[in-house]
Amino acid sequence: MIEEYRGVWVFIEQNDGEIEGVSLELLGAGRKLADKLEVTLSGVLLGHDVKALCPEIIAYGADEVYVVDHPIMKDYRTESYMKGIMLLAEKYKPEIFLYGATPNGKDLASAVATDLSTGLTADTTMLDVDLEKRLLEASRPAFGGNIMATILCKKHRPQMATVRPKVMKALDRDTSRTGKIIEEEIDLKEENMRTKVLKVVKDVTKVASLADAHVVVAGGKGLGDIHGFQLIHELADTIGASVGGTRDVVEAGWLPHELQVGQTGETITPKIYFAIGISGAIQHVVGMKNSEFIIAINKDPNAPIFDVATYGIVGDAMEIVPKLIEQFKKLRKEKGGEVSYV
Amino acid sequence: MHIVVCVKQVPDTKIIKINPKTNTLDRRSAPAILNPYDAHAVQEAVKIRKMVGEGTISVLSMGPPQATAVIKKSIEIGADKGYLISDRAFAGADTLATSYALSKALERIAKEEPVDLVICGLHAIDGDTGQVGPGIARRMDIPPVTNVIEVTELNEKEKTILLKRKLANGYQLIQADYPCLMTVGKEINEIEYSPMPNMIKAARYEPIIWSVNDLENVNRPQLGLKGSPTIVGKMFTPPKPEGGKRLEGNSDEQVNQLMEVLQDKKELFLTAR
């Protein structure tokens, strides 16, 4: 029975005709899995007036694109999108189906997994296949511990996973690639929908500031209390960086949740990441380890954060950070003007 | 208006320690608490009841007998009654089997009083999946709305509810027919101090405990470990990166070295204008 299921699928999330970055990353990751399994890689695109995106999806690695283009799919909503996905998945039977671990991707995958009675692994950060058994190996940090767990779904298909944004790498865009576009009709009526999206309000300012920052100054429990954490804000202000923090810091109320870096917060890849008073639990590290240049300051010489740091300083943040701030201010004065980043 | 809130008992991840030898959690080190997101879910039910004027709030949990503690905690926040489904048959469930068991319990609760709204926390802090809420909604065939940050309006005549659903870069304003299910984040409300009568009620309250035999039309192979399509294949410590250079010396020397490094890394870093 499960032999009927073949092929790797990626849900292509689009908002207002723009493909989410994570979907392109998943085409890159999915390409590797499909090549290993010697099957096709397909993008699955739902929306209204979105057909123009198909060549893009192929340029980023897909062999084929399944499209359901219908006015009812204009804005994301679980009800209509899951019906579109169910239609395709039941008809074409993929063996692996990946979604970005975004609010919409997680929502959709959870609903679809229930209706397909199949397994779904949340917030995956590593993907591989066991070629012999054709099993997807979806790994994620195990709860709280400094350890990864590989989740398998042996007897059900498709094997589904949501994957953290900014963990996988997209392929280079190659417009010479060719592929097949398969359009599918769906019979859904707006008046039968039990949910309506009345309006979509964009607020790009908040999350973007952390996700797109070139330099991030992040603090952890090691700063002692909310007053100690002020040093993080001060350093960030001085060098024009964004502030981030660990889960502990957010749980303690020192920072709003939007500024949490890690498995349950943002995954970021700034050019420079200051990890101050952060021990480096895996839950945090998965959210920042791909930063280009990591500077760690921590009292504990054995803190795991030093394993991912480009430069480590063993010492008291309370002593070091004020001196660092002072140096930056001096530098700014000497050179006359703002500190900036190339 | 009958609101059912699904709650879970979880170890307090803020306090839990990691065993340095095994790299796994030392569960004895952490007290069990009501999942923080679920506390906000109960609080939101209390708010909605206030908004419409009257209603019953029931809480539902699945877990070992000691999980009654999170039901009592929910009573403190303002729930009226609580149900715990507890049985070896439920043990080892992944999110698919969990949503199945909870939906069967919801079926029985709905027999006593029809359910208008189901509220769940966005995710539990021990599993971090957020998959059970939407799963329950699918099994009950009611619309799920995840990531709700505001309940804007509830129209009892039309049986519709107006919700703000958080997106990565903003929000959607959604009108849903109810019964429906929503999952809520922490932004949705502030947990209020429990009034004294609630505390007294909670202390004396005896939650209703159901075993698998108390639920109807249950297909046993869909429960627990047997009903779970996913399994943990292996646990491993991720390959350890070798780590970078340590900057030695006293704090002044360390800071000076760091400033040099940063100014050297021109392609990455600082140039003053």
What tags apply to this protein structure?
heterodimer, A: 342 residues, alpha/beta, Rossmann fold, 2 domains, seven-stranded parallel β-sheet, five-stranded parallel β-sheet, 19 strands, 27% strand, elongated, B: 273 residues, nine-stranded mixed β-sheet, two-stranded antiparallel sheet, 16 strands, globular, electron transfer activity (chain A), Electron transfer flavoprotein subunit alpha/FixB family protein (chain A)
Main sheet of chain A, how many strands, which sense, barrel? 7 strands, parallel
Q: Tell the overall outline of chain B.
A: globular
The domain tally of chain A reads 2
Helix content of chain B: 25-40%
Structural notes for this entry:
The complex is a heterodimer of chains A (342) and B (273). Chain A has helices at 21-37, 54-59, 78-92, 103-116, 205-211, 230-239, 247-251, 282-285, 305-308, 317-335, and strands at residues 8-12, 14-15, 18-19, 41-47, 64-69, 96-100, 120-124, 126-130, 135-141, 148-153, 159-163, 180-183, 195-202, 215-219, 242-245, 272-276, 293-298, 311-314, 339-341. Chain A is α/β, with parallel strands linked by helices. Chain A has two domains: 2-192, HUPs (Rossmann fold), CATH 3.40.50; 215-334, TPP-binding domain (Rossmann fold), CATH 3.40.50. Chain A has a seven-stranded parallel sheet with strand order 7-11-6-1-4-5-12, sandwiched between helices. Chain A has a five-stranded parallel sheet with strand order 15-14-16-17-18. Chain A has a three-stranded antiparallel sheet with strand order 8-9-10. In chain A, β2 (14-15) and β3 form a beta hairpin. In chain A, α3 (78-92) packs across α4 and α6 (230-239) packs parallel to α10 (317-335). The longest helix of chain A has 19 residues, at 317-335. The mean pLDDT of chain A is 92. With 273 residues, chain B is of the alpha/beta class. Chain B folds into two domains: 2-222, 3-Layer(aba) Sandwich (Rossmann fold); 239-273. Chain B is 28% helix and 30% strand. In chain B, the strands form three sheets. In chain B, strands 11-10-9-12-8-1-6-7-13 form a nine-stranded mixed sheet, sandwiched between helices. Chain B starts with a strand and ends with a strand. The relative contact order of chain B is 0.16. The model of chain B has no long low-confidence stretch (mean pLDDT 91). The chains are: A alpha/beta (342), B alpha/beta (273). The interface between A and B is large, with 99 and 87 residues. β10 (148-153) of chain A pairs antiparallel with β14 of chain B, so a sheet runs across the interface. Chain A: FAD binds at residues 246-247, 260-264, 277-284, 298. Chain A: Keywords: FAD, Flavoprotein. Chain A: It comes from Cytobacillus praedii. Chain A: One of its GO terms (molecular function) is flavin adenine dinucleotide binding. Chain A: Belongs to the ETF alpha-subunit/FixB family.
